């Protein structure tokens, strides 16, 4: 928590310094704005490349471990099936709400920014617009895992990871356990690397903001105000949908659940990490009346497969970056992006800013400049507060709903 606060402060300081430097160049030395922007933008490029470096191993290890550990579904049967149906439905609804509202509100159309490396972006756009069924199959099915790793083809890595995870789950614990444990350790090590790389974020912010302000002036700050307003409005709509579904299933007990989880919700909001409240959430759900076996099975799965706030943010942020660079995407492309995000986001842990990794990969895949992620990084902390709290709400509702369907929800709040 202290580390997150220090990083937040460092990003704010970098933002202020970047604005100051960029504003000085824009007003005092306009003739130097273009070369200055080109050079200082390299700080942002370093940060983006560091993030891209860990995309493939992070998706591979987290997804293999998640799928391999899902062998429990066969033992628990109905509970696992109902849980996965909830996770898939909630994820699709969250992604769809983000997609509809970002298209309706159009926060990225406040201003337009010039596309860096326009030639490469045009090439990517042409290749994505001419997306045939044959191209799609080639894009999804890997010819070589190593080629998929080398080119950061996330969908191909997902396909291999799912097949490998299922194979491990069916090998039997004696054979699979050492491999799963190894990948689990690697996944945790890579997530540790995410923490280290995020400390380069202030430099990336300074470079990106200074370059943007030097080129575009102070008009860019209209974007941040509109972006936050529209994102939290979209988050409010998602909360209404989740709570309405929760009320239809739990009835008046929904209000008891909200009282129970108010502390975990506030902790997630302040720390920007839904994982920070995991032990407390287990305790409160059991006190609410959920069966402890159901809680211990569904909640860990939910932390990988049911991050509703993060899912909504992925479509919202990806289309926002496309809008701000003036890239028009067809309905077909946007639906494809939604399905891609549905697959690629599974298995990513609920740690701060992990969803940014997937957004960078998706932007690259659809011809949207991944450098755009640096533009929303300065205010991502505020967005992360809202989406982390939403992730906790979604997982609490999923666990309570499945407990109710299984007849395992006590009518009274009890002891652990």
Automatic annotation (TrEMBL):
Keywords from the named record: Cell membrane, Membrane, Transmembrane, Transmembrane helix, Transport
Keyword Transmembrane helix: yes
Topology in membrane: Multi-pass membrane protein
Family matches, as SUPFAM superfamilies: Proton glutamate symport protein (SSF118215)
Signal peptide: none
Pfam families given in the database record: SDF
Membrane-spanning residues: 7-26, 46-71, 83-105, 154-172, 193-214, 226-250, 319-344, 356-379
Natural source organism: Chryseobacterium oryctis
Protein name in UniProt: Cation:dicarboxylase symporter family transporter
Domain of life (superkingdom): Bacteria
Protein's cellular compartments: Cell membrane
Keyword Protein biosynthesis: no
